[in-house]
């Protein structure tokens, strides 16, 4: 598969790009906002495209042409202003869904947040961020795409452990970004993950074992 | 009909409450956030209930029991912080939709904003507000309710003229809040407005004439 990574310059995005670049079964395209970010990827032999999530659906369609899958891992993690949260985490995500539908890119992986699906479990210190993720996820689920919504717990910069827990409703926990990237990578062609949404934290199982048990 | 007005203390809300209170065919209940706001309505013989749009769906269900219709006219007009925009204009609105569905209140009128349905026509100075209204409106349209989405242009405090233009896609314009309240009132039992969304500005037609031409 050729995979467009939206939010390629983010921390999860960069790790995912590396996995995809080193993969024999996939190709990757990095979507970034700035010329210098694209240049940095191209220097590393990564196909890169410039598009703005605050722009129109058409430039996202252009970015998606020729791809088979898209991973949406753009966004702030809750610490930019809520105005950008509305325009990027919510509207930018939904525009990406619409672009994928219009171009015919069927496979869509969304990086969300633990329990974004349950209002009563939203993290109170960043409720507006959770609201944006919640409605973006709803749009993904209502789309015609073969989606997977991954809802990681608190993101760490620690090295990945390769051991995870994945499930409909997990208690709060954490997970290294490296492991999130690995779960995205593994989910791409794991049929068990199609049309599924799940929480993700560090646990006891290998990634393929955990994905096949969701 | 007994009509719950969500955002009763707002400027459109207050005008609508007055119309409903003076109506022989409707009854009204004001939903407000604060004890003193409820007391003020009760002093004017208006049934009032306290509920918080940032709270759970259950308190909205309690507010809705016994009503036949709900008008959502809460919100900031775009000048509160985007965090509140996400939690009230978007999530609060969708929770009201869910509460109405769960309680069996079928008629729902949403006060939106001119061209909130078309991203390319959003008012650039308040795009995050438009995004919130856009996704709230989508949820209304996807609900099982008999909705009307009214998308007024720039709101004025001028006296109403009773002359409006209503349509799928109008150029930017303005309209007195008093006329918006009158259009809501008239829409409540105008079958032509059921399952319809329309822009609203000052125009040449009487309200019933305009509504029956949408």
Instruction: Report the count of strand segments of chain A.
Output: 11
Share of β-strand residues of chain A:
15-25%
List the strand order in the largest sheet of chain A: 3-2-1-4-5-6-10-8-11
Sheet with the most strands, sense and barrel status of chain A: 9 strands, mixed
Pfam family, one (chains A, B): NAD_binding_10
Organism (chains A, B): Domibacillus epiphyticus
Protein name (chains A, B): Sugar epimerase
InterPro entries (chains A, B): NAD(P)-bd_dom, NAD(P)-bd_dom_sf
Descriptive report:
The structure is a homodimer of 214-residue chains. The first copy, chain A, is of the alpha/beta class and 214 residues long. Chain A has a single domain, classed as Rossmann fold (3-Layer(aba) Sandwich), CATH 3.40.50.720. Helix content of chain A is 38%, strand content 24%. Chain A is built from seven helices and eleven strands. Chain A has helices spanning 11-21, 35-43, 57-64, 82-103, 127-142, 177-187, 207-211, and strands at residues 2-6, 27-32, 47-50, 69-72, 107-111, 146-152, 154-156, 163-167, 174-176, 196-202, 205-206. In chain A, the strands form two sheets. Chain A has a nine-stranded mixed β-sheet, sandwiched between helices. A two-stranded parallel ribbon of chain A has the order 7-9. In chain A, α1 (11-21) crosses α6, α3 crosses α4 (82-103) and α4 packs parallel to α5. Chains A and B meet through α4 and α5 of A and α4 and α5 of B.
């Amino acid at each position: 598969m050729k995979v467009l990574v939206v939010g390629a310059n983010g921390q999860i995005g960069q790790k995912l790009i590396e996995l995809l670049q080193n993969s024999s079964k996939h190709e990757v395209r990095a979507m970034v906002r700035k010329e210098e970010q694209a240049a940095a990827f191209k220097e590393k032999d990564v196909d890169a495209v410039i598009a703005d999530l605050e722009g129109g659906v058409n430039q996202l369609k252009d970015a998606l042409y020729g791809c088979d899958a898209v991973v949406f891992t753009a966004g702030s993690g809750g610490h930019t202003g809520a105005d950008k949260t509305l325009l990027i985490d919510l509207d930018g995500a939904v525009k990406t869904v619409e672009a994928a539908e219009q171009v015919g890119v069927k496979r869509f992986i969304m990086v969300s947040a633990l329990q974004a699906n349950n209002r009563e479990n939203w993290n109170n210190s960043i409720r507006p961020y959770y609201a944006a993720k919640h409605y973006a996820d709803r749009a993904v689920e209502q789309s015609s795409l073969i989606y997977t919504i991954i809802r990681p717990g608190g993101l760490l910069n620690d090295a990945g452990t390769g051991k995870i827990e994945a499930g409909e409703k997990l208690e709060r926990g954490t997970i290294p970004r490296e492991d999130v990237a690995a779960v995205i990578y593994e989910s791409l062609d794991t049929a068990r993950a199609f049309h599924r949404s799940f929480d993700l934290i560090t646990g006891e199982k290998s990634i393929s074992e955990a994905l096949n048990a969701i």
